[in-house]
Amino acid sequence: MTPGETRQPGREKMRFPLLYPLWLAVYVDILGYSIQAPLFPAIQTLFHVDIFTVSLLLSTNAIFGFICGPILGSLSDRFGRKPLLLISEAGTMCGFLLFAFAPSIELLFLSRVIDGVFGGIYPVTRAVIGDIVPVTHRSKQMANMGLMHIIASLAGPAIGGILVERTGSLAAPGALAASLALASIIFTATIFKETLPYKTATRSLSPQESTPARFQKPVSITPDVPIRRNKVALYILAQWGMHALYFTVLVTMTSLYLQEHIGLGPELIGYFMMLSGVMRIILRFVAFEPLINKLGDKKTSMIGLSIFVAAFGITILVSTWWQFLIVTIMTSFAATCARGPMNTFMSRSVSKRQQGRMQGLGNSLEKIAEIVGPIVGGSVLGAFGGAGFGAMLFTISIIPLAMSFKKVEFVEAAPEPGELEPGD
Is 7 domain-assigned? Predict the structure, then answer.
């Protein structure tokens, strides 16, 4: 087995009920955002602003998420996952409420700032997975975050569009998103238990919360190395950043690509994107689990990154909707294979005490991609058409694939008191 792989013959099915409130939190966070997504054209009409102002409103969340993601992650390493989750969820709820009832465009901007500042749900959830999930099962749980994203994205835009069309205001969709956030806060406060290792040292985790004894093994004890001096962590972050750039361009620019290059209208684009989400859900269960069980994280991620390169190469030649449908199926499978294991590699590259900060840095790279990606993707699509757009994605996607061939040694951190560690 090559370094970095986590294959385990005969992997057993494991459940992690402690993660259930987190799936709700991630679902609500994405659902709230996707409910808002179709409302931005209505904002232009309701508040009498130009397209540039609406575009700036879209990017505000990402800018402040980029700044605050590592801070929230680091705070969760110090004060615990649960307090930071509750603070993030409360901030998200306040942002949704302000978005719903804002009487001016300035307060709408403030709502997006608040949502970005308290955008710690993603990095803290990934840190929790790093705390309690054995290495051999971690990629599946990381992939479940993507699954929640897809499910929420399927329902959110339709809900938001219907509500704003029926009511003629932002109040109903914003209030619905806020009420869902409140439900998430209640679940986290009542069901979720702290997972930060030194916080759990004073209590014994139940069999349902902890790693079963059959997965225990001795691990090497190494001192914490600051991430800025951790070459493995920096390498993994660089790979993740390049992947996040092309993946964000693909996600954010698909609708514009289908409109400008393929000639589809809004309704058909909606159906197309819904089909893409459904395909990714199906592939998550039908193909991803058997593949990662057989090949392990390293090879599965390399397969995913390779499929991205192949799919973008085909995109250069695409001229019809059914050809791009093939590309969409390929990229859906590629995302399922690559993103979960890559998040696992980030969690394995640092100690247990650095999970929050590492995931916060990864989240910041995604936010940078959300800021830069649409600008770059839109400029290339407008200037060079569909072929140029495909060539750009193809070129960028080669970089993380090439980086995946480097052999990376992950040295697992020593177990904390009261914590159980996985075996091979």
Answer: no
pLDDT at 10 over 90: no
Spatial CA neighbour of 368 closest among 245, 270, 220: 245
Least confident of 17-31, 155-169, 279-293, 328-342: 155-169
In a domain, 12, yes or no: no
Contact 389, 253 (CB under 8 A): yes
User: What span, in angstroms and rounded, lies between the C-alpha atoms of 290 and 285?
Assistant: 8
Query: And the tokens for 249?
Result: 């361009």
Host domain of residue 74: 17-197+208-403
Instruction: Output the pTM of the full model.
Output: 0.79
Q: Is residue 408 part of a domain?
A: no
Integer Cα distance of 195 and 403 in angstroms:
32
Task: Give how many domains the chain has, as a whole number.
Answer: 1
CA proximity to 244, closest of 55, 400, 383, 412: 400
Tens digits of residue pLDDT in 87-140: 999 999 999 999 999 999 999 999 999 999 998 898 999 999 999 998 888 998
Instruction: Give the pLDDT score at 4.
Output: 42
To 10 degrees, the CA torsion angle through 373, 356, 195, 288? 40
Tell me if 414 is assigned to some domain: no
Cα torsion angle, 356, 358, 362, 364, sign: positive
Which residue shows structure tokens 């099915």?
Answer: 13
Residue entry with tokens 């698909």: 254
User: Which CATH number do you get for residue 45?
Assistant: 1.20.1250.20
**DSSP conformation class of 412:** P
Asked if pLDDT for residue 203 goes beyond 90, the answer is: no
DSSP letter assigned to residue 210: S
